[in-house]
Design goal:
- By secondary structure, the protein is mainly alpha-helical.
- It folds into 2 domains: about 5-110; about 115-170, no CATH class.
- It contains 8 helices and no strands.
- The chain has helices at about 5-20, 30-40, 40-45, 55-75, 80-100, 105-110, 115-125, 145-160.
- α1 crosses α2 (about 30-40), α2 crosses α4 (about 55-75) and α4 (about 55-75) crosses α5 (about 80-100).
- The chain is globular, with a radius of gyration of 16 Å.
Length: about 180
């Protein structure tokens, strides 16, 4: 049996992603299955170092989220929102790609994990001139619908104004 660096990163990334979303939700094997069925693992394996535009990434992201939600539905897992699927993907991609190679095209366009801490902190930044800034603190990421998630992603792209998307995580802290 061979064990590749990709497999090693995958195991770690699944563990990280599951830990970010499983609380009061479901178990790691179910989250792993949803990620693996979504197509994101194969996409990263084949495209990690290739060019990708934000629009192209968004198209893939939507497909992956819908697949994850569908897998959860087939397993009778309740609470499987678009926001939860998006965070599972974001932490997985962060662990697999962004932390591994922050300069890759995929790292620059992949959606960052969105959680309460990030939303609270970014909404407090008075240097951000965006009409929705103060409302971001009221968002519950576990309840985000597809349309609200997309709206939030578009808001954050405007705020970052061309910087790599992972820059948004300057608003995330590990201590809440």
């Amino acid at each position: 049996m061979t064990y590749s660096h990709f497999q090693h990163r995958h195991k770690f990334a699944v563990w990280c992603a599951a830990g970010a979303v499983y609380r009061n939700f479901t178990k790691t094997p179910i989250l792993k299955e949803a990620l693996e069925k979504s197509g994101v693992v194969e996409f990263i394996k084949e495209n990690e170092r290739k060019d990708i535009t934000p629009k192209n990434f968004d198209i893939h992201h939507e497909t992956w989220c819908e697949s994850i939600i569908q897998t959860w539905g087939k397993g009778n897992i309740s609470g499987g929102s678009y926001g939860r699927a998006a965070k599972l993907l974001a932490v997985y991609i962060k662990s697999m790609v962004v932390v591994h190679n922050a300069q890759s095209k995929l790292s620059k366009v992949a959606h960052p994990p969105i959680d309460r801490i990030t939303l609270q902190n970014i909404s407090k930044d008075k240097n951000i001139d965006h009409p929705n800034r103060t409302s971001w603190k009221k968002i519950n990421w576990t309840e985000l619908s597809k349309s609200k998630y997309i709206e939030l992603i578009n808001d954050f792209r405007q705020v970052l104004d061309g910087q790599p998307f992972w820059f948004l995580e300057k608003y995330w802290t590990i201590y809440g």
